[in-house]
Amino acid sequence: MIVGFSGKLYKRYDGDGIDLIKEVVDEALDMAGLEYKDIDGVLSTFGRGGFLGNKSFISGSDQLSEYLGIRARYLDNIQYGGPSALTMIYRAYKAIRSGEANTVLCVQGGKISQFRDGLVTPQKTDFVDTAFDEFIKVYTQMSPISDYAMVAYRHSKLFGTTDEQRALVSVSQRYNAMSNEKAMFKTPLTVKDVLSSRIVSYPLHLLEIVYPVDGFHAFIVSKKTSKSSLRNVDILGYGEAHWSNPPPEWEDIIYTPAVESSKMASFNLNRVDVFELYDSFTITVMLQMEDIGLVEKGKVGKFVESNDLTYKGNIPLNTGGGSLNTGQPAYMSGGVILEEALLQLNGMAKGRQVKDVNTAFLNGIGWWSRRHSVTLVLGEKK
Length: 382
Fold this sequence. Notes:
Blueprint: E1 2-10, H1 17-32, E2 41-46, H2 60-68, E3 74-77, H3 84-97, E4 103-110, H4 113-116, H5 133-136, H6 145-159, H7 163-177, H8 191-196, E5 199-201, E6 204-205, E7 212-222, E8 234-242, H9 258-265, E9 274-277, H10 282-291, H11 300-306, H12 323-326, E10 328-329, H13 334-345, E11 359-366, E12 372-379
Parallel strand pairs: 2-3, 2-4, 7-10, 9-11
Antiparallel strand pairs: 1-7, 4-7, 5-6, 8-12, 11-12
């Protein structure tokens, strides 16, 4: 039912974000063999700014429909960061099966280089993490980097996880990225290279941290499959979890909502051919490996040392290099891992194709403080 997809990423895109969206949607529709007139549902998740000058969309799906000339009877805006792309696929499937729509366009991304490079300064009053920011954020911080750095430090103190072990995640994903034409970073990495890169927020090094970029991903979900050459991929498992209270109120910050979303998906990991896990930071990947049940909590450091996580290895993980190497469009990696999963499932991952991929396990982590998780398992039902 996913009949077309596309993604475009740039360190800096000179035009308006709305023009880049159209380029991406055009490509996805071309793959699907469909036209704009076929779309009757639109789902979106957009970052701030860059759509018309530096202005943001208020209701992305509605405004996108207006711009593209889509007459939709099903609209939804899903706004909890990176994993929203995975939720869009699930809701699009549901909408089609319930008869609410026939063809649904799902778009995630944004144009944020102007904020990244300091060309535009966001107003402090226009965006908050929680309703309690004034009580929680009492010190100057580099959110979300400082937040994840604190998690990495606690994981190290509790379990002895080392900088070298975290660096192995960067090394294996860079190896995968070397065969990905969309990757921005392709120079081979060693553990020494990672540890020699500067500390950004202790203990996280520069080469453990994602680079925000301009870009969008589009996915077409439709029951009109006659013109598409893609496999009839179905949803084999799905779960989402939302921890609305801030991390200081959690049992421990070394856990993520993935412990709940993965249980809801209820899928046997021994049947998984590729894992695509949200990789905003090296520690993000490691936390998810534990929380989805791939390894026991606290033992992920030894796990990455004793297993091959490259596309050639026994546990192929983030086979395209992840957003650590493609860049993270508008601070959201969901589209990156979803596109890679679809490439693998359809035998289209040139130079890094894992053999006989029939099942892809995806997990997304969202928002600044890791409060949302979505697990999506894609493959063909047997």
